[in-house]
Amino acid sequence: MLSIAVPNKGRLSSKAVSILNKIGFGIPDDPGRTLMMDIGKGRYRVLFARADDISEFVETGAADLGITGLDLLLESGKKVETLMPLGFGRCRLVLAVPETSAVASAKDVEEGSRVATSFPNLTRSYFDRLGKKVEIVPVTGATELAPHIGVADLITDLTETGSTLKMNHLRDIGTIVETQAVMIANIDSMQKKNEEIEEIKSAVSSVLNAKKKRYLMANVPKDKLAELPMLLPGISGPTVMNIMGREDFVAVHAVADEDEVNGIVTMLKSVGATGILVLPIERLIP
């Protein structure tokens, strides 16, 4: 049995479950208070855990695989194998000061400044690299409040758009790390269960590959086939098939980048293509 730990709540939870469901896991959208679930006719066990604990679970072998944030993994310092970035949960761990502060960058931070953070290890390492001695003030929540009540002079915190910092009258002065969700594996499991892990890794990769692709179908005039390379830029090897009862049109099927589809459709229509369909792709295996 292969075990995989996923966040039970928070910013990574629903998308972690979604990506596993796209490869056939069948996890309920809201597992409630369920902590463990066997699926796939006993082939897999899903553990629902705090995202902060998943690196620990994977390092110790309580779980073979895990989905967590890169920031949490780096903060934990656990020894695991990072298999792949998953493309969701993107944000930055930033250094921020009150809007009224004269500090413009990390280099301007004075020695002995107090830094409130829920990422003490990453923050300490960051200032060590800068050669600055600061006082780390560990907090577990409401980090943005710390400078305004005298607990700290500045903070490090996660931000996606910066709107929460602005709302709390704080200013971003530097990025410590850019983060997103990652899939990690236990080092011993990579040897003992390599085939099963590669199966999951390949399946998840196929979902990620398909995310920004679309399947394009159109009936194209046969005398315009020579123009296909111009009509479908960047698409290699579209499939061309005869249409029953038609000699003047052929069916063209191709995979295109999502952000190119509108332009391709316009060009297809310009040469008389009909029956144009654009469909999402669940999984794409190169």
| Discrete helix count | 9
Rounded mean pLDDT score: 92
Overall body shape = globular
- CATH level-4 homologous superfamily of the largest domain: Periplasmic binding protein-like II
CATH fold category name of the largest domain = D-Maltodextrin-Binding Protein, domain 2
How many structural units, i.e. domains? Answer: 3
User: Which strand order do you get reading across the main beta sheet?
Assistant: 2-3-1-4-11-5
Which CATH top level class of the largest domain fits? Alpha Beta
% residues in beta strands: 25-35%
Assembly annotation: single chain
Low-confidence stretches: none
N-to-C span: 27 Å
- Which H/E pattern describes the elements? EHEEHEHEEEHEEHEEHHEHEEHE
Number of strands: 15
Percent of residues in helices: 25-40%
The assigned CATH architecture of the largest domain is 3-Layer(aba) Sandwich
What does this structure look like?
This protein is α/β, with parallel strands linked by helices and 286 residues long. The protein has three domains: 2-88 and 180-210, 3-Layer(aba) Sandwich (D-Maltodextrin-Binding Protein, domain 2), CATH 3.40.190; 91-179, Periplasmic binding protein-like II (D-Maltodextrin-Binding Protein, domain 2), CATH 3.40.190.10; 213-280, Alpha-Beta Plaits, CATH 3.30.70.120. It has nine helices and 15 strands. The protein has helices at 13-21, 51-60, 70-76, 120-130, 163-167, 187-192, 194-210, 228-231, 261-270, and strands spanning 2-7, 36-39, 44-49, 65-69, 81-85, 91-98, 114-117, 135-138, 154-159, 170-179, 181-185, 213-221, 239-243, 246-257, 274-280. Strands 2-3-1-4-11-5 form a six-stranded mixed beta sheet, sandwiched between helices. A hairpin with a 4-residue loop joins strand 2 and strand 3 (44-49). The longest helix has 17 residues, at 194-210. The two termini are 27 Å apart.
